[in-house]
Amino acid sequence: MNKNFFYLLALGAAIALPLFTSCNGNDDPTDETLISSEYIYVLNSGNMNSNNASLSMYDVKENTVIKDVFEAQNGRRLGDTGQDMVLYGSKIYITMTRESTVEVTDLDAKSIKQIRTEGAPRYLAVYEGKVYVTYQNGYVARIDTGTLNVEARIQVGRNPEQLTVTNGKLYVANSGGLDYNTEAGYDKTVSVVDIASFTETKKIEVVINPTEIESDQSGNVYVISKGNYGDIPNTLQKIHSATDAVSVMEGIDGTFFTTAGNTLYSIYSQWGATDIYYYAYDAVSDRVLSNNFIGDTKIPSPYQLNYDAAYEHLFITNSDYRNDGDVYIFDKNHTFVRKFEVGLNPMKAVYVKK
User: Fold this and answer.
1) Measured between alpha carbons, how far is 215 from 233 in angstroms, rounded to an integer?
2) 6-26: per-residue pLDDT in tens?
3) How far apart are CA 192 and CA 190, in angstroms?
4) C-beta separation of 241 from 166 below 8 A
5) How far is CA 121 from the centre of its chain?
6) pTM, full prediction
7) Under 8 Å CB-to-CB from 313, ≥6 apart: which residues?
């Protein structure tokens, strides 16, 4: 597995994408307003510095895809390097890292506001009317969902990536990834932020280069440290809710992962290896349920993974960094449902039903 499996690289030239594609032979969306009542949005990051990020829309009932519904609705491109997306209330929030903006749209993908940020925005979390976003320059910002303004920000660790909310706290993975070839090197901390006061209360030490972080239904936090892509491997760790003590998970590892209640789903391939594992893990009984939850389904180049609680389905994206990617859907019983083609480097999928 080469290092591109973990990071977005500017590989290949931007390709011209057709606006509409179909999974059932119909070249045009059936709804003239473009948006149906049940659909899945997919954020495609595109290639860095190519201004080709996009938002695809899959119509669940019609089995059709609009490759770039954002451009169709707004008459402009989404921008450069889409990173993360969340649905919260009646709005969708999208971080555009190279643009230093958070794009806010309605449920029909029509732009409401571009929020300018004081750092390159990375990942998002939501809680009680606020959206929290990590900035690559070492901050977490808080956005009010009513005014759509950044109302506060606090400093955490170096180059924070993902963050999660549990027990009235934010847990922020500080990667230090931009310092990998400097004297400072990778960061190795998770910042704990008290949400009520919006202050950092402590840093928890983990394996170097933590990037992925999520919490389970019981309040425990899980973090993947990517190591140094050499003698320090990927490591999946658990931060125990009661004490914030850290332990290395046994029988399971991950390159990226997601949580569904008290079940962890992890896709793992160590740097330089060719084997790919698809773990399902019961966080209550602390046991591995499967190391191949996708069964006989073949996914050539798994890229990202997320679970949508409203839809109760898993989304696994596929990317070769050069061509349009695919999304594979699995239900809560790990049964393959369908796949559909989207844009370049699909990062995140969210389900919407109006």
Assistant:
1) 22
2) 333 333 333 333 333 444 433
3) 7
4) yes
5) 13
6) 0.90
7) 307, 329, 330, 331, 332, 337, 351
Cβ neighbours for 40, distance < 8 A, ≥ 6 positions apart: 57, 58, 60, 311, 315, 327, 349, 350, 351, 352
Least Cα distance to 119 among 101, 94, 132 occurs for 101
46-75, pLDDT tens digit by residue?
Answer: 999 999 999 999 999 999 999 999 999 999
Angstrom distance (rounded) from CA 299 to CA 217: 29
DSSP at 53: B
Joined tokens for residue 220: 């425990």
Give the SS3 label for residue 69: helix
180 dihedral zone (left: phi>0; alpha: psi -120 to 50; beta): alpha
Residue 98's Cβ-side half-sphere holds a number of Cα atoms within 13 Å equal to: 17
Longest dimension (CA), the chain: 57
Nearest to 347 by CA among 109, 52, 44: 44
Instruction: Answer whether 29's CB lies under 8 Å from 80's CB.
Output: no
Are 260 and 313 in contact by the 8 Å Cβ rule? The answer is no
How far is Cα 239 from Cα 215, in angstroms, rounded to an integer?
A: 9
